[in-house]
Amino acid sequence: MEVLKHECGVAMVRLLKPLEYYHEKYGSWMYGLNKLYLLMEKQHNRGQEGAGLACVKLEANAGEEYMFRERAVGTGAITEIFAAVHEHYKDLAPGQLNDPLFAKANLPFAGELYMGHLRYSTTGKSGISYIHPFLRRNNWRAKNLAVCGNFNLTNVHEVFEEITAIGQHPRKYSDTYIMLEQLGHRLDREVERLYQKCEAEGLRGMDITHAIEDQIDLSNVLKRCTPGWDGGFVICGITGSGESFSVRDPWGIRPAFYYADDEIIVLASERPVIQTVMNVQVENIRELNRGEAILVNKKGEWHISQIVEPKENKACSFERIYFSRGSDVDIYRERKRLGDNLVHPILKAVDYDLNHTVFSFIPNTAEVAYFGMQEGLNKYLNKLKKEWIADRSHLLREEELEQILSMRVRSEKVAIKDIKLRTFIAEGNSRNDLAAHVYDITYGSIEPFIDNLVVIDDSIVRGTTLHQSIIGILDRLHPKKIVIVSSSPQVRYPDYYGIDMSRMNEFIAFKAAVALLRDRGMEYVILDAYQKARRQQTAADSPLVNYVKEIYAPFTDEEISVKMVELLTPAGTQAKVEIVYQTLEGLHASCPEHPGDWYFSGDYPTPGGTRLVNEAFIHYMEEEYLIN
């Protein structure tokens, strides 16, 4: 599929023992730093535009730095930030570098608390100033705060208005920065509450500071802020005094997993990453539930707190289809089921002719769904074989039995992705010609003009890659028919919870529906939906309705798919082309614990999502449709 810029990745490491413990047991005081590196590198799929890390050193003396941060932009950012950290150590004598006590006293990033972030921009904003973690400084250790997140809020303007109403003056209009200032303000209030309490108890000076750091409760901070956040989020934070938190949205839209033992606490966006990095079994890793936070105090004591009451489960199904690594035990099974569910519509598309059909996949994320499709096809074929043998058992000659048993599902590696080529694709007149060569084919893998060719992909969003590259390059093999299979349903609606697809005109399904309305003289449907969306904008307290659904309502899924084929098939294509989609029912049967399907159904889990999809439709109408 075409690459989607999607939600970011987070990683946290909290060491529960002194650095010398890890040096003695694992051979290096950098145990925590190395674990953070691995957690981030193995989530590289979640962010390739930048990366950052933050570190807190516990028990630093006054006058010494205790909070460190490193950030970089670009696809090599992970390597760059860790190289920058190690740059501090390059001139040390071996005895110094291998001395955990020296490191603790003298070296930056020699701490007990680490937080990492991988960035994919979903707002179009780029540059080092947008790379997490964001940092808020103060001379009181407990008031220092670094935050990062895998999130997108749909109501940033409301949060902005809330913090300006109490007198704050943010220097940037950025969701993470505004969230940092809101959390920072509440952290200040929590520290000041404890200061007054300790002062009333007769404490003075550093005794107050130590008492505050021992008693601070970050759940108070989170409970004041998170109820006003509309969107999908996993927000992580660390304070200068050594507290940390990670909180998940109450709908469970964005994922987070954690592992804890008596040596370490780790958290990441994906479960198999923790399994591999920590070498632990899946049953030892827990998922952070909807509205929960994992809170760790300065002493390393941790607990789970229900910060916001959980709402209806709307865990993101696109995580299961595409975004998360397929190495997760449950995601692997689910993707195979997605492929298996499509067997019967695929067979119908090739007129049940397995003898003259070759099956393959679009590399690389569709591979697991392809395995599931293969298993389903083999089950179908084995059933046929049993029926044929049973019907002819007393008449079968040996060669006929051999012929039946030798029948197989024909599988070939047809499509090849030239990943490196993407780097050199430029803008301008040459772009389309270069884009056509992002994929290559295996010549001789099918019988020209005789075989059907079925290729499965994980999803079809914009259709750009299909139109510019895949269909054209597959047609060079001269198949009788090309069947493109999508393991996900038709992607019809934008996402506003952390994935870069927010404009209506990006979706080939939307373009197809609009084209059908025009073809059938039904443009009044488009105008009527636009007027309803406009009226809803100004109607105070009216129930929010997704009026974009009305664009699709007159048509069946099959009608929209046929129109998509018409729009996506390049001129001069010889083979007949068909697209087969997963159904919503098939999606939910395959991924029962992740029912968040707003991309496909338009049923947004939060009011902000519904408001923004209507705004996107209004923008499309006023900037494109009505002008043309």
Report the sheet with the most strands, covering strand number, pairing sense and barrel closure.
Answer: 7 strands, antiparallel
How many H/I helical runs? 24
Strand order of the largest sheet: 3-2-4-1-10-9-11
Ends distance:
29 Å
Helical content class: 40-55%
CATH architecture of the largest domain: 3-Layer(aba) Sandwich
- Based on secondary structure, the structural category is alpha+beta
CATH T-level fold name of the largest domain = Rossmann fold
Total domain count: 2
- The Rg value, from CA coordinates, equals 28 Å
Q: How many strand units? A: 20
Mean pLDDT: 93
Shape: globular
Low-confidence stretches: 422-429
Described by its quaternary structure, the protein is: single chain
- Classify the beta-strand content into a percent band: 15-25%
Q: What is the name of the CATH class of the largest domain?
A: Alpha Beta
Organism: Parabacteroides distasonis
Domain Glutamine amidotransferase type-2: 8-299
InterPro entries: GATase_2_dom, Ntn_hydrolases_N, PRTase-like
Protein name: Amidophosphoribosyltransferase
Task: Tell me what the structure shows.
Keywords: Glutamine amidotransferase, Glycosyltransferase, Transferase. With about 625 residues, the chain is of the alpha+beta class. The chain has 2 domains: about 10-310, Glutamine Phosphoribosylpyrophosphate, subunit 1, domain 1, CATH 3.60.20; about 320-625, 3-Layer(aba) Sandwich (Rossmann fold). Helices cover about 40% and strands about 15% of the residues. The protein has 24 helices and 20 strands. The strands form 4 sheets. The protein has a 7-stranded antiparallel beta sheet with strand order 3-2-4-1-10-9-11, covered by helices on one side. Strand 9 and strand 10 (about 265-270) form a beta hairpin. The longest helix has 26 residues, at about 175-200. The radius of gyration is 28 Å and the shape is globular.
